[in-house]
Amino acid sequence: MHAIKISIISVLSIFMLSCGDSKTGKNKLSIATNSKNNVFTLGEIAQLSVDNPKGLELSSVTYTLDNETIEDSVNTKTLTLGQHDIVATVALGETSEEIKTQITVLNDKSPKIYGYELVNTYPHDITSYTQGLEFNDGVLYESTGQYGESKLRKVDYKTGEVLKNIALSKEYFAEGLTIIDDNIYQLTWQENIGFVYDLKTFEKTSSFKYGKSKEGWGICNDGAVIYKSDGTENIWLLNPETLTENGKLQIYTNKGKIIGLNELEYINGKIYANRYQKNGVAIINPKNGAIEGVIDFSPLRKLVKQHQGLDVLNGIAYNPETQTIFVTGKRWDKLFEVKVFEK
């Protein structure tokens, strides 16, 4: 085992958010808050009021946040990060008017920087356009992409030998995979469909359609919830039994949202997420969507065969038997076993 030393850099570019502006009603009423641009740091109190430039007599005002009734203030510590819809219903005599705005909640801390130790290096199929990676009982399962090349595989990670392999029809571009009990769940990219397979036989047993999520990118689970990325800042929450989307997390730092979330892995209570076209991994709090840490894996790309088809880091899997993380990339000839530590 030898340590890899990396510089403290942020490997996830920050995309500044667009702030929610109050929508003025027909009587020029609007929702005002106690924060510039309606942006709050997690834990701040958001105070709400109605801006009434005409001085109209208001009989009553009621507020909802994401369709739930609230008072005229809310502690953002109770909210997930990202944008939230505020609606005020204002009574003016016998009539009423709805006015809307959004508030945005940022994390209250910047992400911590993590390093890694390289434990072992194993062979990996250089032709695999790796999209999903997950261990089950010490065996590695892999989903590979590209139209006409997409596969589902069971692999001996130590030798790189493919133990079981099925090809998807050429109209499907495979993406991430995850395993619950005896089922493998595999996403497709833009085809708006996911497949369910029997873990032992690889027989396709069912399929499921996506809901509001735009595409299929990465997927993981904590046993009770399936987490699905779609290339935006959103991670969608799926019911493992019905495979319907029951909500979403918006992934933010203390500066703004992070888009391009790709391959996902659930590790010891956190979601680890590749970011497309970046050689880094974000560590996400699944309770509120906060990016709590960042791992820079960019040095690993220099250790693989440099060839014309070489692509970005993608593929992260946790092996409970070794308590280590395995990472690879698209068209990489190596699979790396690492231990991650806070710097």
Q: How would you describe what is shown here?
A:
The two termini are about 20 Å apart. Helix content is about 0%, strand content about 50%. Strand 17 (about 195-200) and strand 18 (about 205-210) form a beta hairpin. Strands 1, 10, 23, 24, 25, 26, 27, 28 and 29 form a 9-stranded mixed sheet that branches. The chain has a 5-stranded mixed sheet with strand order 3-9-8-5-6, with no helix packed on it. Strands 11-12-13-14 form a 4-stranded antiparallel sheet, with no helix packed on it. With about 350 residues, it is mainly beta. The protein has 2 domains: about 30-105, Sandwich (Immunoglobulin-like); about 110-340, 7 Propeller (Methylamine Dehydrogenase, Chain H). The chain is built from 1 helix and 29 strands.
As residue ranges, the low-confidence spans are 1-20
Computed structural class: mainly beta
The CATH superfamily of the largest domain is known as YVTN repeat-like/Quinoprotein amine dehydrogenase
Q: In this structure, how is the largest beta sheet organized?
A: 9 strands, mixed
Count of DSSP strands: 29
Percent of residues in β-strands: over 45%
What's the helix count?
Answer: 1
Any guess at the CATH architecture of the largest domain?
7 Propeller
